[in-house]
Amino acid sequence: AQHGAAEPIPAPMRDLVWGKLNFLHTTDTHGWHAGHLQESQYSADWGDYVSFAAQMRKKADDAGVDLLLVDTGDRVEGNGLYDASSPKGQYYYDIYREQDVDIICTGNHELYIASTADGEHKHTVPNFKGKYIASNLDYIIPETGERIPMARRYRKFNTKNQGVEVVAFGFLFDFTGNANNTVVKPAREVIREKWFQEAIREKTDVFVVIGHVGVQMQEFKDIFTEIRRLNWLTPILFFGGHVHVRDATAYDSRSFAMASGRYFETIGWMSVDGPVKKIEQVSSEADAAAFKFHRRYIDNNLLGLYHHSGLNASTFHTEHGKNVTAIIAKARKELDLDYTFGCAPKNYWMSRSPYPGPDSIYTLLEEEVIPDIAVNHKRKDVPRLVIVNTGAIRFDIFKGAFTRDSTYITSPFLSVLNHIPDVPYHAAKKVIKLLNNAGKIMADAHMGNEFMAIPEQLSIKESIIYDAPANPFSGEGAQKPMGQHGHKEPSLIEGYTTRDDIGDDGDDAIHSRVNFYVVPNCIQTELAFPEAEDPETVDLVFFDFIQPWVLMALKFSGEVYTDKDVSLYVEGTFTELLAGWIKENWPAKC
Ligand SMILES: Nc1ccn([C@@H]2O[C@H](COP(=O)(O)O)[C@@H](O)[C@H]2O)c(=O)n1
């Protein structure tokens, strides 16, 4: 872990279940490779994960089984370690590559900005040569305009210890927000392509489909159906992401799918036991029923990593892992990520507390930040509606130092405030309602409103509010306390208490439960409104990211505008404006 990171706290633990084929999975790490410095339960860093993987590979070798590492994209955007350098990612590529990942693919965040996709093609694809898979993604070479596969379409290989044959694919969901130097092909079309049809006719022991795709999303179901059509008994394993939740499901008795959260809070574990080699003659559904699948969501917590590897603080860390931790520390220092803009007076939550409310980060924005930053001095007296999508905020603010790192953690995007001047108020006032409530109408116009909100809400549609704190030690297979604290039951800290299609025993550490309050897709602030009556016209101000939705909503309200009618409202990215606001408004020292 990084120097100064929160000390890990012991928790009651569920053990890992090993099989013949075992996997460690990361997804949506979004630059959090230094770990969560302010949260004890997720404070291990990428160097610790390098040590963990090496120790677990050794365990696998000793037992004669196999361990593979998987990453399903969105490695970038969301943390100072990636976003604070100029150009972005200057330190990230060399840190990330230190992990020996066996199967890796692209997420949507690698593609929003053309230079990010260039960086992916120039650095990460060659860093993981032969292991990077792009089943439905092409790249356009800037110099020639030639369109080529981002990386190989699939990978066939044998595992190290048992020689298990694997055919692996790497997909991205049907993403349309990419810059024009990549082409994402819809999964449902790619599965009809000749190369895919040939690949699924390869005789293999197991298919592994990795993807930046939620495990409940249609893309995975389509891929599963097509592979299964021709391979009735072969196990098919899916590793997904994008939705930022811990999740697992089975599409049938010989398949299994898991997603491993977000922000390097979670290291997913999947194992398969049973007749995984063809030589073991799976010839009937009865044989195939012998497959056993397990999943575990490992908190990225050093004490947990020690526990699962059977090691301790003096035996766990490899030289390689320690070096990676040191490289991260050096990068953080050079980027001055601990520079403090101000001191947050309390915690502000995205989903842990209701919106509107005193502890909601969105209420803070709506009532305090936006009125100060959404000001164009030439038009400051013109009434305006300022609309901000909630997905633009990526993480909670914790009481205490708000650092350069926190600015990117809260708001990594290059979003700016644009505006359309003098919009008739009768139409402008309908926009927020359409963005928040007219999901069906907007979806019919191929503009899914849910893409303006936080990704978690693609999966969690209703608030989850617990009546009272859960009984810590109840439930299936009540757990033994972790490591060095003998028989004393540690008190629980808040964290994941996952319920997925497999059950509620997926998390490795037992936490106390956390409420999840669903928030609207967008929030709105009214500024400079006359007191007596409604204005005739207003300036409509909004993040550039939601411009297509805003234009569509205006059209539905009877006012047609195009991109040509939109111009910048305030100089500077939202990230810079927020940092400036904090410097002005929160005390400098904590
Ligand atoms: N410039 C941007 C880019 C993205 N968003 C929000 O992020 C969501 C996607 O997040 P994933 O990590 O799941 O890919 C997207 O739906 C937006 O809500 C944004 O606000 N601005």
Characterization of this structure:
The protein is an alpha/beta fold. The protein has two domains: 12-333, Metallo-dependent phosphatases (Purple Acid Phosphatase, chain A, domain 2), CATH 3.60.21.10; 338-456 and 517-585, Alpha-Beta Complex (5'-nucleotidase,  domain 2), CATH 3.90.780.10. Helix content is 27%, strand content 20%. It has 17 helices and 23 strands. The protein has a six-stranded mixed β-sheet with strand order 7-8-10-11-13-12, covered by helices on one side. It has a five-stranded mixed β-sheet with strand order 4-3-2-14-15, covered by helices on one side. Strand 5 (137-140) and strand 6 form a beta hairpin. It is globular and about 80 Å long. It starts with 11 loop residues before the first strand and ends in a 5-residue tail after the last helix. Residues 469-487 have low confidence and may be disordered. It binds the ligand Nc1ccn([C@@H]2O[C@H](COP(=O)(O)O)[C@@H](O)[C@H]2O)c(=O)n1. Residues 28, 74, 108-109, 112, 242, 244, 389, 391-392, 413, 415, 451-453, 455, 545 line the site of the ligand Nc1ccn([C@@H]2O[C@H](COP(=O)(O)O)[C@@H](O)[C@H]2O)c(=O)n1.
